[in-house]
Amino acid sequence: MATADHEVAENGNVEPPRSSLIFLGTGCSSALPNAMCLIQPSDPPCHVCSQSLSIPPEQNPNYRCNTSLLIDYCGGDGDHKYILIDVGKTFREQVLRWFTYHKIPQVDSVILTHEHADAVLGLDDIRTVQPYSSTNDIDPTPIYLSQYAMESIALKFPYLVKKKLKPGQEIRRVAQLDWKIVENDCKKPFVASGLQFSPLPVMHGEDYVCLGFLFGERCRVAYISDISRFLPPTEYYISKDGGGQLDLLILDTLYKKGSHNTHFCFPQTLDAVKRLCPKRALLIGMTHEFDHHKDNEFLMEWSRREGIPVQLARDGLRIPIEL
Ligand SMILES: [Zn+2]
Ligand SMILES: [Zn+2]
């Protein structure tokens, strides 16, 4: 017996969703452990970072690479497509650790939130997740980004942007990318590997616009990794009282206390969660001020009080979801 949306298994259980979200990284720009905490240890040493000396990374939720999400999207034809959001400084390590663990064979599309180092400096390694050809005669991977990010990346990685070889220039096996500009506008969606995304422009510092993304038809997911302030149209678009309740909000939180000029800290993050009122939220972008187990206990309490389940995500976390 089958319903329109779900196959019903023999035992009557609905089959689990075939798409999923894989958190490739949940840490700040410096990543965790913060190297300074290990080479110039404080007295007493930083508890969160020093754990990395005794606990292997795969068992240590306080070991956090640069924020990045991999969407394993299973469309109507049953085919899996892998959509990568951000390619930071730690991308190679994330591939070695989590592509192998979750058996991810390749990346089909890339989406960039902005052009800061922790979002783009791994772009050279995209070649390792593309098909191999000795002559580099492969279909370029589509990569979606803002015009501003495009201009900056053309300076950082000219060899990834240039299309034509100069006369006499030998072929080099560099990543093959098809650059596609997206607008800073919630109402201008684009489709990557069959899945529709709406850009969510947010302030990341008062002089800088970064993009988050809204995706999923059956479950509405918003991913916002770098934010210091919501722009009113974006906030409206993803809030329960506005454009509709999110099933999952993935949101930036940098420090435990106070405020920061380019990121939300814990108090602003929790305020935003209350205003947007998603069904569930997961936090990313944490520094070593956050201790995974301890702060998730606090959040359990907070969630019971506020009626919105919120937890810190961790690297490698895979969430099955119907998109
Ligand atoms: Zn530390
Ligand atoms: Zn940034």
Query: How many individual domains?
Result: 1
Shape estimate: globular
Which CATH first-tier class would you pick?
A: Alpha Beta
Name given to the CATH homologous superfamily? Ribonuclease Z/Hydroxyacylglutathione hydrolase-like
Structural class: alpha/beta
Task: Please indicate the percent range of residues in DSSP E strands (runs of 2 or more).
Answer: 15-25%
Which stretches are low in confidence, meaning pLDDT under 50 for 5 or more residues running? Answer: 1-9
Please, could you describe this protein's structure?
This protein is of the alpha/beta class and 323 residues long. It has one domain: Metallo-beta-lactamase, Chain A, CATH 3.60.15.10. The strands form two sheets. Strands 7, 8, 9, 10, 11, 12, 13 and 14 form an eight-stranded mixed β-sheet that branches. A seven-stranded mixed β-sheet has the order 6-5-4-3-2-1-15. Strand 7 and strand 8 form a beta hairpin. The N terminus is likely disordered. Bound molecules: zinc ion (ZN) (2 copies). The site of one zinc ion has 4 residues, from loops.
Summarize it:
The chain has 323 residues and is of the alpha/beta class. The protein contains nine helices and 15 strands. The chain has helices at residues 35-39, 47-50, 91-101, 117-120, 147-156, 158-161, 232-237, 266-276, 292-306, and strands at 19-25, 68-74, 80-85, 109-111, 141-145, 177-181, 190-192, 195-203, 209-215, 221-224, 229-230, 248-252, 281-284, 310-312, 318-321.
